[in-house]
Amino acid sequence: MLLFKWFLYFAQRPLGGMLTSMKKDDIVHLAGLARIRLSDSELDEYAKELPAILEYVQDVSEVAADEKDQAPELTPRFNVFRQDEVTNKPDQFTADILAEMPHTEGRYMKVKKIIDQSS
Amino acid sequence: MNKENKIQKSTILDLRAKFVAGDFTPTDAVAEAFKTIEEKDGSIHAFLAVYEDAKAEAKAATKAYANSETENKPLLGVPIAIKNNILIKGKKATAGSKMLENYTAVYNATIVERLKNAGAIIVGATNMDEFAMGGSTENSAFGVTKNPVDETRVPGGSSGGSAAAVAMGAVPMAIGTDTGGSIRQPASYCGIVGFKPTYGAVPRYGIIAMGSSLDQAGPLTNTVADAELIHNVISGLDEKDATTIVPDTYREVEVKKKNVFGVPRSFLQSGVDASILETFENHIKLLKEAGHEVVDIELPFFEKGLSAYYIVMPAEVSSNLARFDGMRYGHSADGNDLLDVYEKSRAEGFGEEVKRRILLGTYVLSSGYYDAYYGKAELVRKKMRQELAEVFAKVDIILTPTTPTPAFKFGEQSDALAMYKQDVFTVPVNLTGVPALTFPMGNVAEGEIELPVGVQYIAPHGGEDRLFALGKEMYDSKLDS
Questions:
Q1: Which CATH number do you get for residue B74?
Q2: Chain B contacts of A8, Cβ < 8 Å?
Q3: Annotated catalytic, B91?
Q4: What are phi and psi of A5, to 5 degrees?
Q5: Distance of CA B67 to the CA centre of its chain
Q6: Residue B7: φ, ψ to 5°
Q7: Is residue B22 part of a domain?
């Protein structure tokens, strides 16, 4: 069975904590979602700072939508298309791009095993 | 004594005139740029890299002048410095981060291509806050940049290296990027001109993304005329950037002799230094003397701009920086499994401020909080645009100081939130996508030292020409030549 165990783990767990009081656990969870491993001192620091910043930005919540906000945007939005054609020569960038990869095998990028066959 | 530095305070037009006359050549200019870097950059640290191949390009440009092959090359032989989040083929593009310490660009950014086609000679890459996040260049993974005006102070940021490179006289022009003030604030701190174009005016192909609904690239120069010249070279539709606009996207913004300037009085109460307000009032007097009208305006939603910005920007940051996963390029840590590689690579590659913003962005976009934060911030943004349309029906330019304080000392703004408040007047411009120009409006005394402070002119969308015309009138024409 194909299973992204860690993905399900994070997806199932709701975010806890109030805005102004974030626990270390909440930061651990947030860091998990952001795929960043944080040190203990970083966890302590962000647990103090993030609530202060969130509290500061909270004044946007006082703003309520009114009928004017139903009007179309002033900034024009439109789709941009281009011809569906190949714009580079074969292998034009291959060597340069491969050279940036941390792990390669021939013309392939090498990564850790993704599929867990045991579960 | 060394002979006088010909690049310091020099304009591109001056240099070109000298190049055409032949008494000072691009070879001399690039040699002088290198000499200045050698003499001053050990201490200032504006540059992350200096490109030796500039010398060969300078030689070719010198030959082109000798043969009068200068057509369609408005920047021929002029040295330029480029912020290190902009891709130059074959050169390291670090974005000031350990994550990209060894990353070599595979292609040129569109603006690099255009600058090269115009004949500019890229002499080096400039230091910056990591991934353009910060207002002091203290967040660079490769050490701080010092302000050439007073080396105990920050040059501003995130384009602090670009501002310092121009201010120390190494180059007459540099390119920066501006997501919430990152061109205008360092320009103000270093006493030079900075310009943030209309959203979509300048292609971002090949520029490392931070906040994609906010980012724009623009010039840092000694004069407004030079900023205009560079903007005209780098702007324009690019099929590789779908957000670029054509000149008639917005209603024409007329260039007039007499303009109405609007001053958002209550907005100016947001913690602005008294000395800056005094210099600002003096600038208003100069505008009136020049025959312009200055009126008071209200921008209540602009006052919420900083809050909206510190929701929208981290949200976009957390998405844009998800690509740095240790797989295809950039820093890669060893790990037990895929998740371990991701988490360790990002832990080691990103600095403190970048992590802070990714976490904030992840939070405001997470299920249950999205509407309360991101949804509301986008609503504020919409109301800001409406507010702006109403105000620009009555005034031609909105006038503010560029920053609430002059350049601060290293380590002085140690609290993240205090640092963010430096952006109060610049972020509304990015949130609404309008263009803005900053140039020095005077000096304020801080103890023994005089520090430059900038004034900000904000125009409607597509109002570049109005800003350049007014900037030339109120700044360039008053410079001693």
A1: 3.90.1300.10
A2: none
A3: no
A4: -60, -45
A5: 36
A6: -90, -35
A7: yes
In the predicted structure, residue A40 carries a pLDDT above the cut 90: yes
- CA-based nearest residue in chain A for residue B324: A35
Facing residue for B347 by CB, picked from A36, A65, A93: A36
Residue A13: which domain range? 5-60
Q: How far apart are CA B122 and CA A9, in angstroms?
A: 49
Nearest CA in chain B to A31: B359
Is residue A55 domain-resident? yes
Q: How many domains does chain A have?
A: 1
B90 assigned to some structural domain: yes
The pLDDT score that the predictor gives to residue A16 is 41
Of B68, B51, B83, nearest to B16 by C-alpha is B68
Chain B hits for A57, Cβ within 8 Å: 306-308, 310-311, 373, 377
Q: For residue B395, what are its two tokens? A: 């005034």
Cβ pair A93:B368 closer than 8 A: no
What is the tally of structural domains in chain B?
A: 1
Question: Is B316 within a domain?
Answer: no
Identify the band that residue B452 occupies on the pLDDT scale cut at 50, 70 and 90: very high
Range of the domain at B133: 12-249
CB contact under 8 Å between B383 and A69, yes or no, is: yes
Query: Is B257 a known active-site residue?
Result: no
The verdict on residue A77 lying in a domain is no
Is A41 part of a structural domain of the chain?
A: yes
**Reported ipTM:** 0.90
Strands B260-264 and B397-401: parallel
Q: Is A115 within 8 Å of chain B by CB? A: no
SS3 of chain A: the string is CCCCHHHHHHHHCCCCCCCCCCCHHHHHHHHHHCCCCCCHHHHHHHHHHHHHHHHHHHHHHHCCCCHHHHCCCCCCCCCCCCCCCCCCCCCCCHHHHHHHCCCEECCEECCCCCCCCCC
A100 inside domain: no
Closest residue in chain A to residue B331, using alpha carbons only: A102
Model confidence pLDDT, tens digit, residues B130-151: 999 999 999 999 999 999 999 9
Q: Say whether B83 is catalytic.
A: yes
Nearest to B62 by CA among B19, B31, B115, B15: B19
The 8-class DSSP code of residue B220 comes to E
Average pLDDT over residues B204-224: 97
- pLDDT tens for B15-53 read 999 999 999 999 999 999 999 999 999 999 999 999 999
- Is the residue at B376 inside a domain? no
